[in-house]
Amino acid sequence: MITDIKGLHHVTSMAADxxxxxxxxxxxxxxxxxxxxxxxxxxxxxxxxxxxxxxTPGSVMTYFPFGEMPRGVRGTGEVGVTEFAVPEGAxxxxxxxxxxxxxxxxxxxxxxxxxxxxxxxxxxxxxALVESADRGRTAWTGAGVPEDTGILGFxxxxxxxxxxxxxxxxxxxxxxxxxxxxxxxxxxxxxxxNAADTIDLEAVPGGKTAxxxxxxxxxxxxxxxxxxxxxxxxxxxxxxxxxxxPVIDRDYFWAIYFRTPGGVLFEIATNEPGFDRDEDTANxxxxxxxxxxxxxxxxxxxxxxxALGA
Length: 310
What we know:
CATH topology: 2,3-Dihydroxybiphenyl 1,2-Dioxygenase, domain 1
Largest sheet: 8 strands, mixed
Shape: globular
Strand order of the largest sheet: 2-3-4-1-13-16-15-14
CATH architecture: Roll
CATH class: Alpha Beta
Strand content: 35-45%
Number of domains: 1
Number of strands: 16
Radius of gyration: 18 Å
Distance between the termini: 45 Å
CATH superfamily: 2,3-Dihydroxybiphenyl 1,2-Dioxygenase, domain 1
């Protein structure tokens, strides 16, 4: 069994409009844009990162806004709901705020003893706010969000799968422990990591396979502390028969990827070096940062990318 995984690192999704995406996360949700860069494989497309003050692993939602990309079709084989933690008692504030900002799909409920508010993002993205203890985390209080209600980081994520058994086996191998089951959803929790420590598997036998597009999660990333730990995880996955990519330098972390039995793309990302490697904390996310190989084309790239606003 793998013992190096520390919970979630980030979740990466796709969007249709960069400015609308930026506005939703920085204004509606009050998160901080901690990095403005480009897709390493498509430099004409932004890669935008939103999170807490420094982009702590376990707090960062990232997006590829692919212009006029058609919306994805929800279904099985994907992360269906990305869950953010908010302080206990904060949901009444968020229900009013999200309604005032025009968010749709607002649905209150409880799951495994936790109060939650589900809602839909600009591209049909599935989100939930879950009341949770802060566990040492401090919310970023952008766009007038009070500190006692701000988003603390991720709570976890919910995957929708036709058959969850093989993915459950994988999560167990990755260090997660089976927790509780409510209906078709079973929770898995990892001990000793960060506070973004839950994964829910929802079994939907016979469900239609998801089709990726705007609003779809592209991949979900799990955190390891450093590169040596990542290599241990990679070796363990290869020994188990998974097809894992070589280590890829993403400037702010090192990454490996593999496809799960349920169809979801997993990433294992390092907590090092972090988002302050090329700009100071006070100015994170302001300047366009480019991978070294794209610097000679900065003028062309900047001329193509749309304006984001503040």
